[in-house]
Amino acid sequence: MTSGGDCPGLNAVIRGAVLGGIKRHGDEFVGFRDGWRGVKEGDFMNLPRGTVRGISKQGGTILGTSRVNPYEGPLGGPEHISKVLKDHKVDALMVIGGEGSLAGANRLAEAGLPIVGVPKTIDNDLNGTDYTFGFDTAVQIGTEAIDRLRTTGESHHRVMVAEVMGRHAGWIALHAGMAAGAHAILIPEVPASADDVVNWVQEAYDRGRGPLVVVAEGFVMGETGEAYSHLGLDEAGRPRLGGIGEVVARIIQERTGIETRCTTLGYIQRGGVPTAYDRVLATRLGMAAAEAAHDGAWGEMVALEGTNIHRVPLSAALHSLKTVPKSRYEEVAVLFG
Amino acid sequence: MTSGGDCPGLNAVIRGAVLGGIKRHGDEFVGFRDGWRGVKEGDFMNLPRGTVRGISKQGGTILGTSRVNPYEGPLGGPEHISKVLKDHKVDALMVIGGEGSLAGANRLAEAGLPIVGVPKTIDNDLNGTDYTFGFDTAVQIGTEAIDRLRTTGESHHRVMVAEVMGRHAGWIALHAGMAAGAHAILIPEVPASADDVVNWVQEAYDRGRGPLVVVAEGFVMGETGEAYSHLGLDEAGRPRLGGIGEVVARIIQERTGIETRCTTLGYIQRGGVPTAYDRVLATRLGMAAAEAAHDGAWGEMVALEGTNIHRVPLSAALHSLKTVPKSRYEEVAVLFG
Amino acid sequence: MTSGGDCPGLNAVIRGAVLGGIKRHGDEFVGFRDGWRGVKEGDFMNLPRGTVRGISKQGGTILGTSRVNPYEGPLGGPEHISKVLKDHKVDALMVIGGEGSLAGANRLAEAGLPIVGVPKTIDNDLNGTDYTFGFDTAVQIGTEAIDRLRTTGESHHRVMVAEVMGRHAGWIALHAGMAAGAHAILIPEVPASADDVVNWVQEAYDRGRGPLVVVAEGFVMGETGEAYSHLGLDEAGRPRLGGIGEVVARIIQERTGIETRCTTLGYIQRGGVPTAYDRVLATRLGMAAAEAAHDGAWGEMVALEGTNIHRVPLSAALHSLKTVPKSRYEEVAVLFG
Amino acid sequence: MTSGGDCPGLNAVIRGAVLGGIKRHGDEFVGFRDGWRGVKEGDFMNLPRGTVRGISKQGGTILGTSRVNPYEGPLGGPEHISKVLKDHKVDALMVIGGEGSLAGANRLAEAGLPIVGVPKTIDNDLNGTDYTFGFDTAVQIGTEAIDRLRTTGESHHRVMVAEVMGRHAGWIALHAGMAAGAHAILIPEVPASADDVVNWVQEAYDRGRGPLVVVAEGFVMGETGEAYSHLGLDEAGRPRLGGIGEVVARIIQERTGIETRCTTLGYIQRGGVPTAYDRVLATRLGMAAAEAAHDGAWGEMVALEGTNIHRVPLSAALHSLKTVPKSRYEEVAVLFG
Q1: Which of C275, C305, C308 is most worth mutating to test chain B (most B CB atoms within 10 A of its CB)?
Q2: Which end of chain D has a smaller Cβ tally under 10 Å, C or N?
Q3: The complex's ipTM?
Q4: Which domains does chain B have, with CATH numbers?
Q5: Global pTM?
């Protein structure tokens, strides 16, 4: 089952698991529909080999997804879910999901259910794995979009602001910003003040470029928002309405007098054809998850370490998010301005 | 000079004109900076052959652009501009611009200035030419983005709304929507009511898809906005704040109960590497404009007709915009729902 | 039915025809498999609405294709084919094919069969239509590939030769070469001598670039091949073995002493996701072909003229290929060297 | 200096080093032209900040490259090169190169020269680092091309063979083949017999697909070539003329009777815009190399380990290539057929 927000590579995980399991062990697979909803309701589709043909390059998930919680409602909890699995002769449940889903999976595994996990977050903010699939695609799409913004900024002598995904962690902004040569990158982990931003922008502008600012959606302006209340910043340094990118653009324009435009990349970052990197990573994770199930590695998930796929306890991915360390940000910030 | 909003292909026009003029006639070229501002202030750069090397594939314009009007201010008007051209021994001025710039160019040409035009509008809404460069790139980028939205919509059983460029004409929405297989396309020329939109969306949803709606930024909801005032529609059927795409998304969600998300493509549609189609069209227009100048075709512009580049009076592009004919829209609307 | 070499946009034609026919007229559609083979053998699949869902962006053809001739063999000819159509209650046959298939279609229509045509050639060499679908995608893929070759050529101070499709007509080479800024474009219609090529290449090299040569597969070296027999050219100016691009590269290297490399783009030009331009054109052609069938426009095909789709007799596309006129080539050749 | 074959990301390394060095330490940079040739001849260009503006996304190398050896000829060897560096007040030399260049760099460093290295190989076959920049771009381009081949193969019921780079190591074939869902991947490290290949292909064909075979250029047919001598295989299992992909295609066609076509991707794999992944990796390596120079880490190179950039002795990358382990290949081979 696939759970939570969709992510490029989900179908490659499914294909890797199904092909690997069938060819190595003669397994049979079913796919529960729409995440935990399908598990709870026993709603599934058969997954013979033909159903995973050519799906690695498709975005989204052929199984559908939802944000349903495995513990809520009358059908929630280990007893009912265990019954569903047994009724349908499911020997192992593979949960492809983010922190919430893996937490649920962990609780169910602790309650004795035969569950293995595959970590999924487009934001790359799960611990226990070097990278998660989908992240590379999001960074690539973001970089291509920002490359496009740059030519417009330079032609019009404007500041271009791009808001990218990243509610709690700034990995997408950090990587796409580095790749596109941004003059400022603003992430949730490191508050920057309006003065910082204005300095970076003005410096780049004075060298004759159209400055480029990349902002993660979860960025918080590092000072009381009162000074910019009239531009839509609230007291906590967050936007009162709409996205933080728009507010940052307004502040830059008011402070520097340079025309400033914001583009919010939105959902185009998470859909569509995955990069080759994500397809390879996802396929390997899927194959490894099928092996984990055969080894009865309940309560574990498959993860990337260096160039290897290995297993770690589900708990390794829980409790705290993998955010951008200050040192890593400062390394990049050298390039600003 | 390049004037108005930037557009993929501007640099290919410049290169085509410069290489064509140099190789056929031994011409010398200068480029005025930032549109009419540079013309009025006599601010230009020399354009020897080396400066246009490899620029066809660059977005934006190496000359910079602005929205300055050639008639405004103390440096405006034919007398001063004529003096600038003579002072710098400029025998012909090539104006690459949209309706406003070409109108100014036409007035100046009527006043006796040696001016030829190249039509430019990313929205494809200029009369006198089959297509304008930049449009194909905008449609391509829009289509790729909407392809990405589609997989997310289908995985989450959501309606996805994409807002694309097109303030007065719906060509980008029409073409990108057709290419991406949208279930509804909403354009400025043809008001659709909330009932229409909801029917199209619901029908597509009931057939098991994630419905896809493409909205041009200039779309007007075809009924009094009062009914949806609480969702941000004003009395004229326009958004009170933000973009029309967001408002359409809110109306769909309220009326159908299906989760609906909007992405506004924004500036990524107009920057970056032009498609091959636009590079070829722009190169041909640039070469033809250099010939037009040699023929003293003042007051004319170069244009595409079928597979040929020919000349038409600048006035052919003025007075009214080329909008989507109702018959053309209805042809496409057959595919909706 | 789809016949001959595959071409990006075939599926969009099918979808346009099926959706248009169903929604406007309540038609039913079947698709014959693998071109004329399926027609002759009565081998087809039903095409209800769901089967064409989302296929516009898929390369290839869901119906399969072949190079079978409708007149050959015991199952060939109008009588048997007419019987197949009647047996399966097919009221109209839509032939999507190139010159050979359309010639067969024309003969069958003249024999009284209810046939309409859709012109298909990735080389854009059919008369009777401004452009054919698939051509834009081939040019776009070729241009992107040549853009990539260019950076390698410049870094290594090498000449890069790219061989593109075009057996009889040089349209792809002409457009991709213009778009990528080639220093020489060699096409079947216009013989160039080794001296010409060497001059163009040397001139570009001396200005400090990595020269870029685009060669159509059908190019013929315009002099007796004897002088370059040791490099693989035959007496007719064609390669004795392999492609003409390789031979041109060898000649350039021997004559200029500059390291020269050839890449033959091959099949990557004809497969995969169509451009938005091709999807729109193909969808419009498909819809118009369904209308043509309803109007009983037997023996006609749908075609692009300017911005309109109209109908012309199938014979308009036969008898001679649409090759690159000398004047059009010379216009572009101004940019060489 | 950049040395050896060009590789997407070279310019990002240069930019990372220059910006990092200038902003952290106020360094000055020069770039030697065309690899060791420029070093030996003292031929260089100044690299003030403006020269690296926006170059991360450009393929190739702004410095040019060559395959010149630092030890050959009258200008070779440590004494002369040391003199060049001193004459031009170069305190540290950063060598961005492959195994050959790094071996030269190591020898020079052992002779006392102030040299740091950055590992470069598009084939990903250098030891001492998890991945090298350029590899991801080559895999991505290869995957996109193979995706395109697939639709043609399926429409024509043909076998499509793609030959990709990889003379000694099959990493590109392995990753692009996995990403594109190949039915056979043939690499230099693991000989496969014609029987193996034919079985994999036939099995895929029988399941109704157009089989897809990815071959690295260095693949060796695992049996005496005599049996296929008439198809161009030599006794060592290598092609007598041209590429191994063509020979494999001929063998498949003869043995299975299925039409088979080969496309050799060639130089398009190494040029052009780098992926975001490669730009980020290359930028980080460049910045780290500037730091290494400041720390006097002579004889060391910067490398990727997991998510970190660290330093290893140059010797770690020498002596043996990093080839695909048999276990890794067998893991993937499960998916074949």
Answers
A1: C275
A2: C
A3: 0.96
A4: 10-134+271-317 (3.40.50.450), 140-269 (3.40.50.460)
A5: 0.96
